[in-house]
Recover the amino acids of this structure.
């Protein structure tokens, strides 16, 4: 790549012109809210190409990318084997609306990599996965009420936009107009990481709770690792109370380990949602789990869920190739080591410059919280200095480091983030922290 090392605001003229054009024809100028940089100020670089861990914007500016398309790009951008799989599959036809061998291969791979999944249904996004899993869980339990957790994000389905994380949290829209109150009265949102609260809530709504959905390690209010035995406690309480636990591993699946957070913590959830890495950068999601639950899905069972492009061969081939490469490379311990090095370096710089921040990470996911206390739930996340985060983000961007444009998001490493890249990042971080 021949782009400049970094892109200062004065050199983002083409991106700014594109943003102006975009705003005239697309709400906020984007197709997904957080991309608009509202939370950190300034206007977003428009991306022209990407390779490995680097992005190049429309003005030729180059960035070390810690967004990785919000998680999928664990192998880095434009990985040759994945590009080749996409090209070769597309050349044979991009969609048939009929079964393919590729789908069987991917379904078998998912079932073998995620021990809790006996059967799986492929869909087109993480949102579709969570919405569909919830329908199945409600049908299985015969109950409508669900519990979710404050600050967790499960896509933009109506039932989940109650105290939600990610873009809705970033933009102060944790509950959205347009979602009928009749829907949200079936959703109870509880503080994350507190088993006592969950126990009391089950007691209060005895016999009524059909499903409990959570991000086992959160990324959508920033990275929060669950308290010891929390996830096990959630599974036990669900089992005792006849509620189906849904682990939303759209972000953590194939990211923390092949089998996601469940593998990391040695647990198995009745239902699991997947997305992001599963599609290797193409639109693909999945939900799956226990055979007796998944057998309820049409056409085997009565729960209707369908999709014209579900199991799309191009997306499936990108996902298959990505998972096969991950199996061959088994990069998780090395990714965690590099991530630890980066996070430790940021902590050290902050200490040197007398700045209060928490760098929380799990495997190759991390968040730099401008907070003087560890963050363990939404309430503590909201005590962060978001203005300071905005300055940190903008100044890093000017030095060619592209972090997630919100205090309440996870950043990601890929296998392309090598020692040299980490050192360059740490140098930029140190310069920026010295100015805050
Ligand atoms: N669940 C989690 C945990 C997510 O992080 C996301 C997206 O960030 C979703 C669901 C929704 O996935 P998608 O954006 O593919 O619809």
């Amino acid at each position: 790549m021949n782009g400049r090392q970094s892109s200062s605001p004065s050199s983002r003229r083409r991106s700014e012109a594109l943003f102006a054009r975009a705003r005239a024809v697309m709400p906020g100028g984007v197709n997904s809210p957080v991309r608009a940089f509202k939370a950190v100020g300034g206007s977003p670089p428009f991306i022209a190409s990407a390779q490995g861990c680097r992005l190049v914007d429309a003005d030729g500016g180059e960035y070390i990318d810690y967004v990785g398309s919000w998680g999928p790009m664990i192998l880095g951008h434009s990985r040759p084997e994945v590009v080749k799989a996409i090209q070769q599959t597309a050349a044979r036809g991009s969609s048939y609306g009929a079964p393919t061998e590729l789908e069987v291969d991917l379904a078998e791979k998912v079932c073998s990599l995620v021990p809790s999944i006996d059967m799986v249904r492929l869909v087109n996004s993480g949102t579709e996965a969570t919405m569909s899993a919830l329908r199945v869980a409600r049908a299985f339990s015969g109950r409508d009420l669900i519990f979710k957790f404050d600050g967790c994000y499960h896509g933009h389905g109506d039932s989940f936009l109650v105290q939600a994380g990610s873009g809705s949290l970033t933009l102060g829209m944790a509950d959205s107009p347009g979602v009928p109150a009749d829907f949200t009265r079936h959703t109870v949102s509880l503080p994350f990481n507190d088993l006592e609260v969950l126990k009391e809530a089950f007691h209060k709504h005895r016999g009524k709770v059909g499903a409990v959905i959570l991000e086992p390690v959160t990324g959508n209010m920033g990275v929060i690792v669950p308290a010891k035995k929390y996830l096990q406690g959630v599974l036990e309480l669900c089992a005792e109370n006849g509620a189906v636990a849904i682990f939303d591993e759209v972000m953590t699946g194939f990211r923390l380990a092949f089998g996601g957070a469940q593998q990391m913590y040695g647990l198995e959830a009745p239902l699991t949602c997947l997305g992001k890495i599963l599609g290797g950068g193409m639109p693909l999601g999945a939900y799956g789990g226990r055979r007796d639950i998944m057998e309820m899905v049409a056409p085997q069972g009565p729960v209707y869920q369908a999709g014209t492009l579900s199991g799309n061969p191009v997306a499936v081939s990108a996902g298959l190739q990505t998972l096969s490469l991950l199996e061959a490379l088994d990069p998780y311990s090395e990714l965690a080591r590099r991530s630890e090095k980066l996070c430790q370096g940021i902590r050290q710089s902050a200490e040197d410059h007398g700045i209060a921040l928490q760098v929380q990470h799990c495997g190759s996911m991390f968040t730099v919280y401008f907070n003087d206390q560890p963050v363990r739930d939404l309430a503590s996340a909201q005590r962060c200095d978001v203005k300071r985060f905005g300055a940190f983000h903008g100044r890093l961007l000017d030095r060619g480091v592209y972090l997630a444009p919100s205090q309440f998001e996870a950043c990601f490493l890929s296998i392309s983030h090598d020692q040299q890249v980490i050192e360059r990042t740490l140098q930029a971080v140190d310069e920026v922290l010295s100015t805050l």
Observations:
- Residues 239 and 366 are 31 Å apart (CA to CA).
- The longest strand covers residues 209-214.
- Residues 70, 125-127, 130, 153-155, 166, 215, 219-220, 248, 250-251, 275, 285 surround pyridoxal-5'-phosphate (CB under 6 Å).
